[in-house]
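User: Quick sanity check before I run a bigger batch. Here is a single chain. Can you write out its predicted 3D structure?
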Amino acid sequence: METLCQNDLVRKATGVTLIVASLVYAAWLAADLRSDDLWLSLPFLLANSFLICLLFVTVHNNWRRLPLAVAAPAPFAEPRVAVLVPTLNEPPGMVRRTLESVLAQDWPHDRLVVIVGDDGHRPAVRAMVEDLQRSHPAVLLHYHLPPRRHTPARRGDAKDGNLNSMLGLVAREAIAFVETRDADDLVGDPRFLRHTVGHLVRHPDVAYVQTVKDCLVSPGDPFGNRRRFFYRGIMLSRAAAGAAFPCGSGLVWRRADLEAIGGFPTWNLVEDLYSGYLALQHGMRGAYLPIDGAVGQVAPEDLPNVYKQLGTWAMDTMRIFFWRSPLTTRGLTFRQRLQFLEVGLFYLSSIPTLVLILTPACCLLFDVRLFQDHVVAHVVYSTGYVLLLAAYMFVLGNGTSWREVLRAKQMWVGLMFVHSGACLRALWYGPRRKPAYRVTRKVQRAGLYLKEVAPHLALVALFAAAIVRHLLLPASGRALDRFDLGSVFWVVDYGILLFAFIRRSWFGLGRTGQAEPEMETIMENAAKG
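Assistant: Done. Predicted structure follows.
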């Protein structure tokens, strides 16, 4: 408890310090910017203002947090629980491992109903489910064929339609609780159902319980797929504000509440975030338990697959942000509005981030000085503020390493084109249209994906040209005054971040394709609980 209190005090103290520093930094920017080149200085000031406003919201939203520790589940009479496992193109062996982990957890088999909804209509999956049923006769293990896509009987074209079809089967049974589990997600904690269902039993006003989603990754988690910063940090703040939202897997719903919002919603691209958003609008409550509820057997580790998954999440969030705005939607509390507002602003900040990246390069190319102060003052102000911001991100991570914080920054800079594109597409499609949903590929395809990093390569080339151009300018006055140290500093800094991301475009080339020892150990531990 003492450690938790200390971490709480450190987070709040660092946040207050950052707020004060932000106000000082903003005042310095406004006072020191030159007015001669408004085409460059004004977008730069507006971009900084946007990011500082986002920072204020972040500090407010993370002021309170739930503790990371979770108490052991208390004994209770186990109700019947239905586990819905939608599948489309996952390998049958992968689906089998998921089902075996569900069956191996600490829950009576006669209280368990497992439904496998196969959108792929594959005989191999049916045979696998029937084989498991024979070896686990106490469990009601059912293979289900949802209606074909784009047919009148189907409600939802993607995973939402599969889930709604399975939910219709559950409605015929006396089952009060429904778990959704992705076909490639193992059960992490063997007491997963005891924790989640027990929480719902003890708190009848709670509609759903979300848990941690982890995954098996290559050593070092090069693409940040484990998302420890989010699940071990930010989600605790969301929960403290009553804004914890479903993340698709490792999730248990109270069936009556799920049906009260019309089942799994079909307006959005994926059903998870928006279903919780609707539930909160209806006055329901969600909960978050930081236990390992789901462990993905595979995570995207080639750029096309990474772009596909993260781009889908970004676009889905921005559709809500633009067309079901937390600022105007009825039923949300003030704190919930700010939590969901932050999620949308996070993706929208990719656009001002691009402005900040381009500004120093333009200064060097066009010999523009944005600041009146000495160049050293520019560097001192900027680097001090960025270091303080990094320290706050480290504190928010709740045990996240500095290496993970740096990798998160690299990924953020590298994904700004994906995120900004998602923002624009969300606007383009409007509230009544949505693009076709494609399932994230479950097989890694190592390759040299230079097309995916073409914008990043163009930026690096622009940075190099800008530095060369600046060095070739005729000298005038003192050397230090002529040399734009501040702009060069930022060009080099952003160039390093971009190059770190570009290196990921050929990640996996030359590997054998076999699971790393670290991954095999995680897989065995997850299967054994």
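Strands lie at 81-87, 112-118, 140-144, 177-180, 185-187, 206-215, 251-254, 285-296.

User: Great, the batch can go ahead then.
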